Amino acid sequence: MDKVFAFLKENPLQYCATVGLDGKPKVRPFQMMYREGGNLFFCMGAGKAVYAELRNNPNLEISVSTMSRWLRIRGRAVWTESRTAKEKVIAANPLVKSIYKSPDNPALKVFYIADAEAVIADFSGNPPETFRLN
User: Which among 20, 27, 41 is positioned nearest to 110, based on CA atoms?
Assistant: First the structure.
């Protein structure tokens, strides 16, 4: 888990793939907000298309890469209305704080990835490393 978290922190711009409401794949930039135990937390606004997509189908994949290594995390979005989780998200990112102002803002939606499996691979020819996160 520490290797996965370190890779995400070193490469803060990740991409999230979902199934769109039209049944077609959608990919957009994302950023992990924080880690608690084996769970990685993310956030978004309630008015975003990705929120509707993940409410409809919670399966997702996060991907990030350098020029020679990449990480993929596959799992399922689990939503939380925990005030503590929202406080941690706001504390983790000044942009999120500037948009939502308060953990009490109903537009702020937070999820973690459940049943998360991660793979770190590279071009070395060595087998990929596989991790179960939670």
Answer: 41
